[in-house]
From TrEMBL:
<keyword id="KW-0521">NADP</keyword>
<feature type="domain" description="FAD-binding PCMH-type">
    <location>
        <begin position="27"/>
        <end position="193"/>
    </location>
</feature>
<comment type="pathway">
    <text>Cell wall biogenesis; peptidoglycan biosynthesis.</text>
</comment>
<dbReference type="GO" id="GO:0071555">
    <property type="term" value="P:cell wall organization"/>
</dbReference>
<protein>
    <recommendedName>
        <fullName>UDP-N-acetylenolpyruvoylglucosamine reductase</fullName>
        <ecNumber>1.3.1.98</ecNumber>
    </recommendedName>
</protein>
<dbReference type="Pfam" id="PF01565">
    <property type="entry name" value="FAD_binding_4"/>
</dbReference>
<feature type="active site">
    <location>
        <position position="292"/>
    </location>
</feature>
<dbReference type="GO" id="GO:0009252">
    <property type="term" value="P:peptidoglycan biosynthetic process"/>
</dbReference>
<dbReference type="InterPro" id="IPR016169">
    <property type="entry name" value="FAD-bd_PCMH_sub2"/>
</dbReference>
<comment type="function">
    <text>Cell wall formation.</text>
</comment>
<dbReference type="InterPro" id="IPR011601">
    <property type="entry name" value="MurB_C"/>
</dbReference>
<dbReference type="GO" id="GO:0071949">
    <property type="term" value="F:FAD binding"/>
</dbReference>
<dbReference type="InterPro" id="IPR016166">
    <property type="entry name" value="FAD-bd_PCMH"/>
</dbReference>
<dbReference type="InterPro" id="IPR036318">
    <property type="entry name" value="FAD-bd_PCMH-like_sf"/>
</dbReference>
<dbReference type="GO" id="GO:0051301">
    <property type="term" value="P:cell division"/>
</dbReference>
<dbReference type="InterPro" id="IPR003170">
    <property type="entry name" value="MurB"/>
</dbReference>
<feature type="active site">
    <location>
        <position position="172"/>
    </location>
</feature>
């Protein structure tokens, strides 16, 4: 059980029974017992220590763009590394970004500094911390391609900095998925470029995304991981599931790889639709799709 008085003394921005639907791009999710909007590493370390000493569950989030929170919410403490930890600095060919900085903001800083290498990542709707956590990628590029170092809080509460090659970065995976770590910031190594060419590339990727993806509707991004040798969206579309709905959840009519919230969708709706998609695709093609979206909290 969380002591509300004690947890309130550890951070400036603490809310209780906070609806997670207000903190996820899916706009779905029940209440978190405690929600902390972290301002700095010291606050995070204090909350981590409190949770560890009192056996209180702890979840770290960013922009909430790759998660589905259960309808009954999240027990314990949620720490958001977001806007209050989103500083971006440019020094030569390197960009230092705090974990709460949006990928789009980093892209804007790179463009302003005429640095190339971040174009394919510019439209990913999440934070840098979230991008590192799952080694986010798009259009053939991944964050590991430009990542130099990451500073994070280790499981023992100490702040460490590691090189990208030490982080077990692979397709939609990093060592941080193993739990117990909190990403604080990173250094990205880019290369000099032409501002007009960088801007044109970003616009091109943005147009491709808006033309093909349901970015105007609440979702958690791509719902399923890409199965080896296939494309999830193509398998789902070829299974006749485009537009298929369960409650307020729908397989997007624009891109079958996305489950969207058409309004009032519950986590239960989304989960039932995900299972339906998995079962149908497996029956038709012998491929079991694996969700890319993280399932969090109590269903």
């Amino acid at each position: 059980m969380t002591d509300r008085t004690k947890i309130s003394a550890l951070a400036k921005n603490v809310k209780f029974d906070e609806p997670m639907s207000a903190h996820t791009t899916f706009k779905i999710g029940g209440p978190a017992d405690v929600f902390v909007d972290a301002e700095n590493a010291d606050e995070i370390k204090s909350v981590m220590r409190y949770c560890g000493e009192n056996s209180v569950p702890l979840l770290i989030t960013g922009n909430g763009s790759n998660m589905l929170v259960g309808d009954r919410g999240i027990r314990g403490v949620v720490v958001s590394v977001g806007k209050k930890m989103s500083k971006i600095e440019v020094d030569g060919e390197r960009i230092t970004a705090e974990a709460g900085a949006l990928m789009s903001s980093v892209a804007a800083a790179a463009l302003k500094a005429e640095l190339s290498g971040f174009e394919t990542l510019s439209g990913i709707p999440g934070t840098v911390g979230g991008g590192i956590y799952m080694n986010a990628g798009a259009y053939g590029g991944e964050i590991k391609d430009v990542l130099e170092t990451v500073t994070y809080i280790d499981r023992d509460g100490s702040v460490k900095t590691a090189k990208a090659e030490e982080l077990d970065l692979s397709y939609r995976h990093s060592m941080f998925e193993e739990g117990g770590y909190v990403i604080l910031s990173c250094v990205l190594k880019l290369k000099p470029g032409n501002a007009d060419e960088i801007k044109a590339a970003m616009r091109d990727y943005s147009k491709r995304r808006s033309d093909k993806q349901p970015i105007s509707m609440p979702s958690a991004g791509s719902t399923f991981k890409r199965p080896e040798g296939y494309f999830a969206g193509k398998l789902i579309q070829d299974s006749g599931l485009m537009g298929k709905s369960v409650g307020g959840a729908q397989v997007s009519e624009k891109h079958a790889g996305f489950v969207v919230n058409t309004g009032g969708a519950t986590a239960a709706d989304v989960l039932e639709l995900i299972r339906l998609v998995q079962d149908t695709v497996e029956e038709k093609f012998g491929v079991r799709l694996e969700p890319e979206v993280r399932l969090i909290g109590e269903q």
